[in-house]
Amino acid sequence: MSDIAKLQIGNELYEFPIIQGAENELAIDLKTLRASTNGVITIDPGFKNTGSCKSDITFLDGEKGILRYRGYPIEELAEKANFLEVAYTLIFGNLPTAEQLQKFDKDIKENAVVDEEIKKILEAFPKNAHPMGVLSSLTSALTAFNPSSVNVDSEEEMYNAIVKIMGKFPVLVAWTMRKKQGLPLNYGSSKLGYVENVLQMMFEKPNEEYTINPIVKDALDKLLILHADHEQNCSTSTVRIVGSSHAGLFASISAGISALWGPLHGGANQAVLEMLEAIRKDGGDTKKYMAKAKDKSDSFRLMGFGHRVYKNFDPRAKIIKVAADQVLTDLGVEDPILDIAKELEQEALLDQYFVDRKLYPNVDFYSGIIYRAMGIPIEMFTVMFALGRLPGWIAQWREMRLNREPIGRPRQIYTGQNLRSFNHLDKR
Ligand code: ACO
Known about the structure:
Blueprint: E1 4-9, E2 12-20, E3 26-28, H1 33-36, E4 58-61, E5 66-69, E6 72-73, H2 74-80, H3 83-92, H4 98-110, H5 117-123, H6 131-145, H7 155-181, H8 194-203, H9 214-226, H10 234-243, H11 249-261, H12 268-281, H13 286-294, H14 315-331, H15 336-350, H16 352-356, H17 363-374, H18 381-402
Antiparallel strand pairs: 1-2, 2-3, 4-5, 5-6
Helix pairs in contact: 2-9, 3-18, 4-7, 6-7, 6-11, 7-8, 7-18, 9-14, 9-17, 9-18, 10-11, 10-18, 11-18, 12-15, 12-17, 14-17
């Protein structure tokens, strides 16, 4: 195949190089398009055909159901690694040695305290504020307490910024939930591993010792690993583009949290549980909702089914389904919502409409179920997604800064009014 793409505009013929990725993906390199064509640009709403960068971090193939971080298959990482190991691998490129991992863990723990003044900011939020809004604000507020900008030429400064956010973020995550529940704001324990500490900080009661259930811990570890990166999705692209203006790491992550909040992105896991609740309140008739989902005159969709990229299966959903079954069995959870979820899953997997359109349960269908079984409130589901995605955002921000990427600044095709004159108010 030729490594040149030819474009004809009028009588002029232009040539652009075709570049190839490590997994043979092809792209037309249009860097010189505007300059060589005297102002012609491409237009691609939603960037469905646009690669915004070259990246060494995550490879995914939606048709084949492949997801790999730094070359490692997600299935292997979910089975053999813990979240902190995966975070290190995503951010720094290779699996850590025992020594590197120990240092990473220790440095994160040393940074796992936030300025007490942050509590005052949290106090000012109403109790019914959505935790994603609170988390985004508090993450942005960290900038005020850690104001020095990161010199990206210094490996040490870069590393320090990374362990700072890795340490402080879980504290903010736990506090957003504890604030809602009226619980005292705690710091967990530096004796615990990263994921154990998250659980302790979230669930510890002031009057009793919190015992970590290893099944719950393992399931959360897996969930965080599965959500840790997904290449140039909406929130990751946001982090990269905000960071491309050289705004700091905390500010860039805060913007990513806002992007993740939406129901078309990270908010889908909340939407799944809200849908299941609505079905229960309506009598629990799953067949009625299956019919609604298939009815083209009805806007209802089965939340948690289908995926924009994965058209065969979502490899993350395959892994998490097993964990969900295990958690539900081991915890002996009895919950009508979960029964409805299981019924819907069974019916959809056998239904011709869903089979024909390759609509399988996605990762959000099962993650919501596990979070629910763990006792995590629905509004916190997207916050848990953010906790998992943090290393991915950091890795992508770091890569973008180290690659000296230019500021993200798309162009547009103007479709508004042509030149017209200003009329004074009394003449309008
Ligand atoms: N329920 C019922 N029908 C569906 C569903 C669904 N969940 N998803 C897709 N379809 C149907 C469509 O109506 C369409 O049918 P048609 O061909 O007869 O017109 C066909 O399947 C293809 O659907 P599209 O909307 O073209 O698929 P697209 O790739 O654009 O959408 C999306 C993917 C947005 C995820 C969609 O499947 C959906 O809305 N799912 C529910 C929401 C959800 O779970 N989102 C979370 C995604 S995972 C994540 O973001 C981490």
